[in-house]
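Database export, one record per block. Field names are fixed; values are copied verbatim from the stored entry.
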Amino acid sequence: MEVRFILNQKETVVEAAPDAVLLNVLRDLGCKSVKCGCETTNCGLCTVWIDGKSRLSCSVLAASVDGHEVTTLEGVEKEAEEFGHFLANEGAEQCGFCSPGFIMNVLAMMKEFEQRAETSGRTEDAVPDVEEIKEYLAGNLCRCTGYMGQMRAIQKYLSEKKGVRVG
């Protein structure tokens, strides 16, 4: 079946079997940041944005993105690189295998909280607290870092981007 969608701001047309999983289609298209780590929707390595919302591409049929916009880490390289520096400075990059999905979720979280602040009219709603960060990122598994470096990196990144202390 033919599937038409926007991939990283480019019109894309692929032939996909009705049971094809988006993860595999994206990798076939060269999006190597999208990885399979668990095959059980528990690790977050395959995180992409569909119409701006984080989704696990291993649990999405490719046919379902017809007419939608899909963003992978390759589509947000500038933002990802910026946040990646914060991870590296906190010693949280380690092997880097989980980083693409993790970074996609951090950037999505930031966008979601910005939208929340716009809706409420309260600028303080743009910055998640530590518990909100933990809850938002609960589905991202990392086998190397112990999460403390990642949490410090997120807090420092948000503090710099928002000009406030996160805590």
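Remark 1: The mean pLDDT is 89.
Remark 2: The first helix runs from residue 22 to 28.
End of record.
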